[in-house]
Amino acid sequence: MHDKALHTYIDDHLTGANTVMSVVAARIERVGDDGWLRGFHAELQDEAAQLHVLLGTLVANRIPHRALGLAAATAAQLKLAVDGRVHEPLRALLEYELIVTGVSGKRCLWFSLGELSHDPRVATLDVPMLVSQADRQIAQAEPHRRRHAAALG
């Protein structure tokens, strides 16, 4: 994959990761840890740091994705806040759906980067561990998502 395309691909995933991190941080602040969110948030930060290191090795023009990412995170928080005022269980369900969707997308990223393991810049990532971590994160989030879905009824 060309450096600029790879840079854009990773940067787009970082935008999603930043959105999920902001939703998780807001949930922790609003209702607490749910028994695993703080550790999950720390893992997300670590994964994002690894992607930032990889981005630093790529030759590409910086484009304003960071501003777009901030706008996306703000829009997600605003939507969740508006929906949550109407019905808190709906907000919780939407938060957990965003978490599961985000981690599923991140899992795809790890598999895609695994296909580039011949590139020494990408080979520094422990892709099998990152895929396993994403699988575990989905498994941790899914019962919460289902519980909040059931609370709507």
Structure commentary:
The chain has helices at residues 3-31, 37-56, 65-86, 88-114, 127-151. The protein has 153 residues and is mainly alpha-helical. The longest helix has 29 residues, at 3-31. The mean pLDDT is 86.
Helix content class: over 70%
Which H/E pattern describes the elements?
Answer: HHHHH
Unreliable segments of 5+ consecutive residues: none
By DSSP (H or I, 4+ residues per run), the number of helices equals 5
Outline of this structure?
The chain has helices at residues 3-31, 37-56, 65-86, 88-114, 127-151. The protein has 153 residues and is mainly alpha-helical.
Write the layout of secondary structure elements.
Elements: H1 3-31, H2 37-56, H3 65-86, H4 88-114, H5 127-151
Helix pairs in contact: 1-2, 1-3, 1-4, 3-4, 4-5
Tag the structure with descriptive keywords.
single chain, 153 residues, mainly alpha, 5 helices, 0% strand
